[in-house]
Write a structure and sequence with these properties.
about 240 residues; mainly alpha; 2 domains; about 80% helix; about 0% strand; globular
């Protein structure tokens, strides 16, 4: 009996200690847990909606920046800033007449064959004087268009582009020339595609290889003489101004 009473007292004391320990922990009731979960579930759509709005705002800003960049590039061609109205006409004449003429003179002095574009427009038995004038003007018109587009792309008709220091003038001229070279190369590829009746590449035949190499040499000659004449003209104008 004494042992049973002792065990009973120990169990009572352990029960009291357990109750006091649980009350000291202050655990939240089960309904609070469900309340917190319900709050999280209630606010999660708000968080998702906020994230979606943030993503939409970011994508809108990105599209706006790209559209603004596209408009700025397009404005260079549709609404250019030309401070000297005579400059495009002058440089068009240099690109169309002066540079191709110097190229033909140089080839004649070195007794090199003329380019394919320098053939007379009509089949003359005896080539008269001035037979190269028309093909030179026709070919030069394409070179002039390429140069004008390059100047518009590089903002080459703004006053600081041609009346500034030599480094700025050379930099702007090279940028415009790079754009013009791209147009010239692309136009040459279209011309070869039309002439050969389809897509060809080096190695297809000896005839097509010869035509491709000849076109390559002609493009290099055009770029060289156009660069020399136009760069020299711009540097001379910047010093005179």
């Amino acid at each position: 009996m004494g042992k049973n009473r002792l065990h009973g007292r120990l169990l009572v004391r352990l029960g009291v200690i357990a109750v006091l320990g649980l009350s000291a922990l202050n655990l939240p009731p089960r309904q609070d847990h469900f309340h917190v979960s319900a709050f999280v579930l209630t606010t999660s759509p708000i968080v998702q909606r906020s994230a979606a709005q943030t993503h939409q705002s970011t994508s809108t800003k990105t599209r706006f920046s790209f559209s603004k960049l596209g408009e700025n590039i397009l404005d260079r061609f549709t609404d250019p800033k030309i401070e000297d109205p005579m400059l495009p006409l002058t440089e068009a004449g240099i690109a169309q007449i002066v540079a191709p003429t110097l190229e033909l003179f140089w080839l004649q002095l070195n007794q090199s064959p003329f380019p394919s574009w320098a053939q007379p427009l009509y089949d003359y038995t005896f080539t008269p004087r001035g037979a190269l004038l028309a093909p030179t003007l026709v070919h030069g018109a394409g070179l002039a268009c390429a140069w004008l587009l390059g100047c518009l792309a590089a903002k080459g008709y703004q006053r600081e582009a041609y009346e500034s220091d030599a480094l700025r003038v050379v930099s702007t001229t090279l940028k415009a020339g790079a754009f013009a070279c791209g147009i010239l190369i692309l136009a040459t590829q279209f011309d070869l595609y039309r002439e050969m009746g389809g897509y060809v590449q080096v190695g297809d035949s000896a005839e097509t290889d010869l035509r491709i190499y000849r076109a390559l040499v002609e493009v290099i000659d055009d770029i060289f003489f156009e660069a020399v004449t136009l760069l020299g003209w711009r540097l001379l104008r910047s010093r005179v101004a």
